[in-house]
Amino acid sequence: MAKCPICGHAWTYRQKVLGYALKPRTRTKCPACRAYIEPSTASIIFDYMAIIALAALVFAGIPLMHLPVTTSVMLTGALILIYILVIIPLTVRFKQYDYNIKTPG
Ligand SMILES: [Zn+2]
After folding, report:
1. Residue 31 Cα, ligand 1 centroid: separation in angstroms?
2. Residues within 5 Å of ion ligand 1 by Cβ?
3. pLDDT 10s per residue in the chain (105 long)?
4. Domain limits of the chain?
5. Ligand 1 centroid to 7 CA: how many Å?
6. What distance in Å separates the CA atoms of residue 105 and residue 64, rounded to the nearest whole number?
7. SS3 content of the chain, % helix, strand, coil (to 5)
8. Distance in Å, CA 19 to ligand 1 centroid
């Protein structure tokens, strides 16, 4: 479960899709306390792995299957939808936004 590191709010599936998966990642806000949060390092790594796997399927896997163009396009769209609607909401975890403020001394 993706939880807000500040107030402990557990993100619902809908909040994860609309407030995170379909939005630019740089400005993620907690829907409960409005604090800026960002995905944890582990979920960023997982995100990259999922994108690489997705790209490999789309650019190498699907052409190898020699499907009709329409089927290939639909399959690509389905994979992107699965990524946005299933993989991201299931894997994302949040941490407090790092403002890179250096403590003096
Ligand atoms: Zn919060």
Report:
1. 7
2. 4, 6-7, 9, 30, 32-33
3. 799 999 999 999 999 999 999 987 777 999 999 999 999 999 999 999 999 999 999 999 999 999 999 999 999 999 999 999 999 999 999 999 877 666 665
4. 13-96
5. 4
6. 59
7. 55, 10, 35
8. 13
